[in-house]
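re: the backbone from monday

yeah here it is again, tokenized this time
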């Protein structure tokens, strides 16, 4: 554990100063999943954090073509992690996690990143802020559900639609 001596601490959600807009847009995050002991991660910059069904939730948007979509469908939990993007190694790793598919190689090992677990939920140990989530629902955002023609044209001409996954935030961790 010499690469990072700071231990993750539970972060009270009521004290969150986290700006979800800038963190997702500028810093990006990673969605980490695990199926049968195999862990994969994917860079994500689309998401929301809020309240639904009397719970604190994270919503993530994952295109049908992603291996992460397949992983999410076969796992009960996932994490959404954020990183110190001033660090060059994190910027480089998130570019790899956002362009290579876990179907073809173990991206985490290739980037020399490490998997950690809390409550049996996988997350990347190099991150500094983590939402540990329990999957609650999955909804296809299809052609019939999008009213804005420009959105359809700009983002879905290839038919690779997003699935919206809602996850209950089980714990927030920071270091
Ligand atoms: C900055 C950035 C943000 C991204 N955000 C998303 C996203 O929110 N949803 C999505 O489906 N793909 C997103 N991607 C693309 C996936 O990260 C990319 O296709 C990845 O290789 C999928 O990995 P997987 O096949 O292992 O799941 C993003 C890529 C980058 C570089």
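seq for it, each position gets an aa:
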């Amino acid at each position: 554990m010499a690469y990072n001596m700071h231990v993750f601490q539970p972060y009270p959600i009521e004290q969150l100063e986290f700006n979800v807009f800038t963190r997702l847009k500028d810093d990006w995050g990673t969605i980490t999943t695990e199926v049968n002991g195999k862990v994969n991660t994917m860079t994500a910059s689309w998401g929301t954090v809020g309240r639904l069904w009397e719970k604190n939730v994270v919503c993530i948007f994952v295109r049908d073509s992603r291996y992460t979509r397949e992983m999410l469908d076969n796992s009960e939990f996932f994490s959404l992690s954020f990183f110190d993007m001033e660090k060059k190694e994190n910027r480089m790793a998130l570019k790899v996690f956002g362009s290579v598919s876990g179907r073809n190689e173990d991206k985490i090992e290739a980037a020399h990143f490490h998997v950690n677990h809390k409550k049996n939920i996988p997350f990347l140990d190099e991150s500094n802020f983590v939402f540990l989530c329990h999957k609650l629902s999955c909804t296809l955002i299809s052609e019939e559900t999008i009213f804005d023609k420009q959105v359809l044209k700009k983002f879905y001409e290839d038919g690779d639609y997003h699935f919206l996954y809602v996850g209950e935030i089980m714990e927030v961790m920071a270091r």
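Residues 66 and 101 are 7 Å apart (CA to CA). The chain is about 20% helix and 40% strand.
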